[in-house]
Structures are given as C-alpha cells and as structure tokens.
Amino acid sequence: MDIISRAEWGARPPESRSTVPWSQRTVFMGHYSAASATQTPRQIQDYHMRVKGWSDIGYNFLINSVTGLLYEGRGWNVLGAHCAGHNTEAIGVCIIGKDQAGKQDVSDAARRAFKWLYEEANDRKGKRLQLLGHRDRGNTSCPGDEIYAWLHAGLPIVGGSTPAPSKPPAGSKPAPGTPIAFPLPAGWYFGPASGPAYSVSGLHDRYFRSHTDRYWLQQWGTQLGRRGWSIGKGKTWLGDAGNDGIYGPEYRALAIAFQADQHLTQDGLIGKNTWDVAYHNPVR
Q: Which residue stretches belong to region Disordered (predicted)?
C-alpha cells in the first residue's frame, strides 16, 4: 500500500525532530481528528505548529476516514506529539474524521489502510505492538466509540482479511532488477540543494547506509534504465550531465515524467513512494 510522503502532501519542514529506536516502540495507538474528513494533513500540521506551538504535525501517520488515503506524518522513528507522556513507546495514527450523530463513519478502505499499517509496524518491530486507543492513555474521548471498539476487537475487516495486491495489468512485466530499499530517513527525499536539510541533492557527499547520496541517486536512475527509459549522456533523459547522481533540472524532469507515467503526484522530488514504485511496479 502506498504512503503519501510529506513532500507529496506539501508538509512544512519540522522545527526540530527527535528519533526513537524500534526497541522503545511498544504501542500502536489510534486517534481521530474530531473534524471533517475534508481536512488535509497540511491543515492539521498548520494547526499543530501555529496554534499548539508544536515542532511539527503531532501524528506519525494519518488516514482519511472516507478515501482510506494513507499519509506520512512524522514517520516511523520520529518522536510524535499525540499522547502526552506516551509518545516514545507509541506510534500515533490519526483517522481524519469525526463522530456523526454519535457514530464515526469510517470506510472499509480506511480500516484496511489502518490494519495494513499496523501489520507493517509489527513487521518492522519484529513482534506485535499493543493496540490501543488514545483514551487508554489519556483523559479524552478520542478516537471515538466506534473506532475504539474496533481497535479492541482486533481490527476485524468485514469480508475477510486485508486483500492481496491486485494483479498487474495485462501485458505488463515484473519490475526488473533486485529491489533496493529507500536509503534516506523517513520524510527525506532526493531534491534540490536549495531545499531544507532533508532535501538530498548529491552535492555534498552525505552518507546514508554506507554510501554517498550521489551513489543512491545513481541507483535510482539506473533502475529506470532497466525499466526501459533512455537514460544517460546523449540520451532522452539526463542527456547533458548523464546519471551523475547530482539532483538538478534533468533529474527533476525525469522524476516528473516517471511520476506522471505511474500516476503519482508530480512534484519532481524522489521520495520513498517514487523510489519504491521504480523497483516494484510492473513495466507496462
């Protein structure tokens, strides 16, 4: 399932951030926003930063209660601000929506997204996290009666468990090459040198997972070449500088073209979603 990155939903840079190792994560906590499902992550972030004075959006992830779209908040390993006194052990996930006449209308798509994210957290932790609602650790009605009951019932999905991925389109071929995990921290991306600290350009030889940023950006360009894109000096894409691993107008144009081809948000930034799609989506 795709997680819409911070770059893709237009997040403001955090004013500060602290990381939490998986060894200290023991709880997966459900919240709701107590506002309209039309509310955007950026609106929630603005409220948290401007009104509450927090350093960033408070939640680690957010899910729209109607569409089921899944958004990156602070991410897996960043300390949240969603439950006072319990942000170190708890990954906070907010379902964007509110009670309707005493009942929250949470779509099946939103439930599946929440359950998928919980299972992903368990895989990353290597053991099952305790499943709680905000009211279990705070004096609040959050996350609403319906969600709270669903959490404590173990996230049952009507009609069966989380579905397997859909079949690739007819005539498509599996993605070539060996998948490489996104090498940057959560919320970071390959982008212009003029961007914030988490915009990685390749100009400064910053190291991630034992290799330079330039090396990793070259890997992404090489993967697009395996997928059939004309990559390199004198070719259709990266024709002037080649696949040199330094983000600039040529990499931006390539990223936008690839994002358009894959029906992604076309921002020209190479975040986790754009990276993963290159290694996992079938080639049409």
A: 1-20
What is the rounded (10 degree) CA torsion for 130, 134, 135, 136? 20
Domain parsing of the chain, residue ranges:
6-152, 189-280
| N-terminal to C-terminal alpha carbon distance within the chain | 19
pLDDT at 164: 41
Q: What does DSSP assign to residue 51?
A: I
Buried b (16+ CB within 10 A) or exposed e, 199-220: bbbbeeeeeeeeebbbbbbbbb
DSSP 272: H
42 vs 123: CA distance, rounded Å: 28
Percent share of the chain, pLDDT over 70: 93
pTM: 0.57
113-150 pLDDT, tens digit each: 999 999 999 999 898 999 999 999 989 989 988 888 88
Fold topology of 6-152 = Lysozyme-like (3.40.80)
Task: Spell out the alpha helix ranges (H) of the chain.
Answer: 6-9, 41-46, 108-125, 145-152, 213-226, 249-261, 272-280
| Mean pLDDT, the chain, whole residue set | 89
Strands of the chain (E only): list them: 27-32, 61-64, 70-72, 90-96, 99-100, 103-104, 130-133, 189-190, 199-200, 207-208, 211-212
